[in-house]
């Protein structure tokens, strides 16, 4: 029986600054609070999963620098009981970091890739664990994995193919980027992805048109076509789209469903950093426990709900019992 979840990709130290307003260029705002915490797809997903279920076997994989920021991330990984044997340290590059400006329900990122740019297919292909899921994030932000590769198209596609041969189900997220970069990088990896979890802006890159109207409201009629586009591109099992208003999913059998978000008053939102990763963690955990797809989307929504109560990417994470109680309260059942 396969057991556990591997989280690989960007490991980042988030340096979160809560600000009082969003200034125009050349103007000033006040920093109200500062906090640092782990960030990046695998970090956020694994930290959230560790909070949900401390007994779940979790494995961290990536590259960090041989510096104080790297020491901080390793300490946080170990504090949560996550296996760090596949965390490599760069002799030359610093730990990747992001200055996160958070305020008024919005966030802006100033990012240094650091050692993440060195993460190579060889670093991940050696992982031979009998885990159930292999999560990789973020495509379009991992230089050597995004680079061309002769057999599979990109280094990321090569890694994902290796994980599938090893028996893992592959789960992928990517960042919002220019459509031409999406076509050159993400599309080549789609046939090696079992479960794709992305937001509506990223989905629009495949559809070739926005899924929001000119007034900013969601165009729900474009959600299914966007998911179908990604499925047609090669995704093997499931496409999940998340957005502030809710989430949608399309499986290989053609079943499509949507759920609303778990409501939260705007005044209670502390920060949105890591909300998408929190959603992914909830979905992954539900699928890992073989819960119905609708419940997986609902649990993802609840995970995002708690994330929004903290300025950091995983500071709001809670245990599964609390999440399940909130899910029943929000969605019934």
From TrEMBL:
Protein's UniProt name: Sugar/nucleoside kinase (Ribokinase family)
Record's keyword terms, sorted: Kinase, Transferase
Provenance organism: Victivallis vadensis
SUPFAM superfamilies: Ribokinase-like
Upper lineage: Bacteria, Pseudomonadati, Lentisphaerota, Lentisphaeria, Victivallales
GO molecular function, one term: kinase activity
Coiled-coil portions: none
Protein origin, superkingdom: Bacteria
Domain Carbohydrate kinase PfkB: 35-304
Cellular component GO terms held in the UniProt record: cytosol
């Amino acid at each position: 029986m396969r057991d556990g979840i591997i989280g690989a990709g960007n490991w980042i130290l988030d340096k979160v600054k809560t600000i009082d307003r969003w200034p125009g260029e050349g103007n000033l705002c006040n920093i109200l609070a500062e906090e640092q915490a782990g960030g990046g797809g695998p970090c956020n997903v694994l930290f959230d999963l560790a909070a949900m279920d401390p007994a779940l076997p979790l494995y961290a994989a990536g590259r960090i620098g041989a510096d104080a920021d790297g020491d901080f991330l390793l300490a946080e990984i170990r504090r949560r009981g996550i296996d760090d044997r596949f965390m490599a340290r760069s002799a030359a590059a610093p730990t990747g970091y992001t200055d996160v400006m958070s305020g008024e329900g919005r966030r802006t990122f100033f990012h240094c890739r650091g050692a993440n740019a060195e993460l190579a297919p060889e670093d991940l292909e050696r992982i031979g664990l009998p885990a159930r899921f292999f999560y990789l994030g973020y495509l379009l932000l991992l230089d050597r994995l995004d680079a061309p590769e002769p057999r599979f198209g990109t280094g990321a596609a090569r890694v994902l193919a290796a994980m599938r041969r090893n028996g893992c189900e592959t789960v992928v997220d990517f960042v919002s980027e220019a459509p031409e970069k999406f076509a050159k990088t993400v599309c080549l990896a789609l046939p090696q992805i079992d479960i794709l979890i992305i937001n509506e802006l990223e989905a629009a890159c495949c559809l070739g048109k926005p899924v929001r109207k000119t007034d900013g409201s969601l165009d729900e009629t474009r959600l299914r076509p966007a998911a179908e586009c990604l499925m047609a591109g090669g995704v093997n099992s499931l496409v999940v789209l998340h957005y502030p208003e809710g989430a949608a999913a399309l499986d290989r059998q053609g079943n499509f469903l949507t759920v609303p978000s778990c409501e939260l008053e705007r005044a209670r939102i502390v920060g949105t950093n890591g909300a998408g990763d929190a959603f992914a963690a909830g979905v992954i955990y539900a699928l890992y426990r073989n819960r119905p797809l609708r419940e997986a989307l609902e649990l993802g929504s609840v995970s995002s709900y708690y994330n929004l109560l903290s300025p950091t990417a995983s500071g709001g994470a809670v245990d599964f019992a609390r999440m399940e109680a909130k899910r029943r309260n929000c969605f019934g059942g």
